[in-house]
Amino acid sequence: MKRRQVLKNIGLGAGYVMVAPAVFNLLQSCKSEPKSDWEPVFLNATNGYALTKVLDVILPKGDTPGASDLNLAQFIDSYMNEVAGDKQKEEFKSGANAFALSFKENYDKELIDGKDEDFESAVAKYLGADKETRDGYVKQISETQDPDAPKADFDAHAGSYAYLNAVRDLGVWAWKNSEEVGENVLWYDPIPGAYIGCLPESEAGGGKVMSL
Question: What is this structure's pTM?
Answer without folding.
Answer: 0.74
